[in-house]
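Entry:
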Amino acid sequence: MKHFLLLFIFGISFSQNQSDAYYIDVQGFRGNVFKHTPEVSHLATGHPDGFLVSINKKSSGKKEWQQVYGYPDYGISFQAIEFKNNYLGKNYAIGLHYNFYFLKRHLLFRVSQGIGFTTNPYDKETNNKNNAFGSKFLDNNYILLQYQKQNLIGPIGFQTGFMLTHFSNARFKAPNSGINSYSFNFGLNYNFDKDKTIIKDSLPNTKSYAEKIKYNLAFRTGISEAPVVGIGQRQFYHIGLYADKRFNRKSAIQLGTDMFFSRYLKDYIQFSSVAFPNKEPVDPTTDYKRIGVFVGHELFINKLSIETQFGYYVYKPFKYDIDIYQRLTLKYYINKNIFTGIGLKTHKAKAEAAELTLGIRL
């Protein structure tokens, strides 16, 4: 559901600026799997390779945010990767991205969020060594850092650099160790409008964006499963109460608290109370609820913003995972007081939940 929401948001953005120009790029890549946990050592045996095809829409500065962020591109891409490992098979993904430029538009930084598909997920009987992907459909994120040169020979240019990509199902279904890979890539681009007009208007003073302290209520939900195959998927409910202070055009800081009602933990507590007799005993009546406090930052782009939060559990009776958590959320403001979003809650490199958010800011 969250991926369709993201596609819808970007679809609106594309339809609003039909006069903007486009370019495409086609790239090949080859790299390695990063052993982020010992559990994936048997999966990091080959050198993954594949290709990436992207359609990029240029911004001209018609909107104020485009000028503030240096006339970024936004677009859609398709990725295919062969992991060169019998247990993993091949993955495919489609994602939506922003390209940000530096060093006279020769240094490109891209961030992408999308949905993936794997050809060889975990199966208890036929593929029980694949503890990375417990489902066919996955989350996919990747970032690019590249040198790019457009219009080198007519409309044709090139780009080269590095890519980091991540596939997992965000604990939607166990197992879910996930796979992170890094690679070197090289490709060509084709520019459909090399003489694009850039609008450079004067921008309003950034102080005009400063606001008084605002108060937020965020309700987050979704489905997740304990890290035990077959234990069952359960709904979760996360409630966030926080204050934020916006200082300028781009940034606000946050301080708040989270309450977590993750029902999969009830099942995991019951399981742990009988499944691990040689470990410290677990009381099956242990409270599964958790409370955390966090600090955060929100980066405003246009109606979209990127929210980053770092939290610490002050109440966590069941000793499971570490006491520090992180959250990365892509938010969309329906109006100035109501927002929605999709996000990922993690404990370091381990995903716990993909969250669908609805909130108010007053």
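The first helix runs from residue 2 to 15.
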